[in-house]
Every structure is written in structure tokens, then in C-alpha cells.
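task queued by scheduler; priority normal; single chain, no ligands, no partner chains; default sampling; output format set to C-alpha cells
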Amino acid sequence: MEQINIKLGDVVILKKGHPCGENRWEIVRFGTDCKIKCLGCGRIVLIDRPTLKRRIKKVLEGHDEKIAGNDHSVPR
């Protein structure tokens, strides 16, 4: 079986679509259970990791946290 690398913030396409018509989901929390957010309606679903890995069709690039040139770090 193919190894799937998933990290926080990745967008995945699942085999079955959501009832709202969208099949792209963002990984919001990743651990024993994974929390995914529908990019169509914003619904959040909690799913266990083995089931999620079985249902993934494709992994798209994740969202970048840092926008180039906009580093708003605050010194402590």
C-alpha cells in the first residue's frame, strides 16, 4: 500500500463527496483522530486516522502560514 504523507493545513480530496457537493477538505487537527473541514460549507468532521487514509483520493498542497514579506513576529 502506498504511504500517504499528511500534515496540518493540507487540503485533501476524498473518494466520496460531501452532501454540499464539495469533495475538498482541509486538515484542521491531526492525531489519533483527525478533524477535517469541508471547503464548501465549512462543516467540521472528526474521523479516525486509518479511515481517513483509506478515503483519501489525492493530497493537494497545504496552505502556507507565512506570506512572503509579511513577517509579523513580535519580540518578547
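post-processing summary
- The radius of gyration is 14 Å.
- Residues 11-60 form a domain with the SH3 type barrels. fold (CATH 2.30.30).
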